[in-house]
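Can anyone check this?
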Amino acid sequence: MPTVAILQRILPHYRLAFFRRLHQQLQLHDIGLKLMYGQERRGAVPRTVHLDEPWAIRVENSYWSFGSQELVWQPALRYLPGVDAVIVEQANRLLINHYLLLRRRLNKGPRLAYWGHGQNLQAENSHSAGECLKRRLSSHVDWWFAYTTLSADIAAKTGFPKERITTVQNTIDLREFLAAKEITNEADRVALKASLGIKSNNVCLYCGGIYSDKRMPFLLEACSKIKVRLPDFEMIIVGDGPDRHLIETAAETRPWLHYIGPKYGADRVPYFLISKALLMPGLVGLAVVDSFVAGTPLFTTDLSMHGPEIAYLTNGVNGVIATNTTDAYADAVIEYLNCESMQASLQRGCLESASKYSLENMINNFTCGVRDWLADQSATADARMSSCVSCISQL
């Protein structure tokens, strides 16, 4: 049975279901899986969770900081003998990647694949030394597992063969969200709105981390402009982070702004269900998948810093990408709240997209990629053997 190893710097809670079910799916195809994961840097989030499985191995990462740069060593080499192929995260700071790349170049190590975004989409300078190095190294692996079609396009632009790129369509386990949605009835929604003092139906939501990339000042300014033109507008903010003080201060003078604090898992669902839109003018990542499942269209702006999951959002079909000004953003939200047909159309688009970006599809895509990769390895090995036999016969 061939064995594939996946190295993860950390193991966040939202990846548990993926790895458990990927292991089961690969076993059905007679492929073994080893997962090696470490812990986060002290004080950082998300935090690593423990996975108590014989095929999962926790290692102790070492972190070093040099100014704004960070280097990480994952002591996983002792677990790699006998492994046929290794999948690593695409990140320059992971020192083991460079070691494995060198071994691969010398034809002394297992086959190597990247799993990642393609580039740092939040980088201020895409031509920095770090990003140039990342692009150069992107073409030196044997296979690519790209988060989305956007990531696949970025990898292909480095010259990497498209036939050796698997687009996994990155997502999370949505079963808990769906279950909570099914059991939340109209009485629950009415009670929640009453508890918040909300009487209007023109309710919007922000749900996520509260930090600079999420652009809270932009969101607050745009919401204030919406409120002026739509007097019954109400805004709910769910989340936590270093910029929460901005929300808390704003809520003191804006009775229509309801700051809930952090909510996780199923506890977030009722807030989606009483809201007509999810407002996220800053960085968008997997929140777009939550919006699809809830049927609550996401409104963002045309930034270049979004996560690769922005590829899932089709403007005017399952969400809205507005011009990056508070006036244009407010205009887009107001148009939507004033138009029932637009609401119905975007909500329908969300629900149609939800099934496309399921965890089941991600696992199937990843499994097919692993199988294709291993088959490609076998073909390469056979070709090398034939070449050797041919050379020997000519002696």
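Reply from J.R.: I decoded it. Confidence is low (pLDDT under 50) at residues 381-395.
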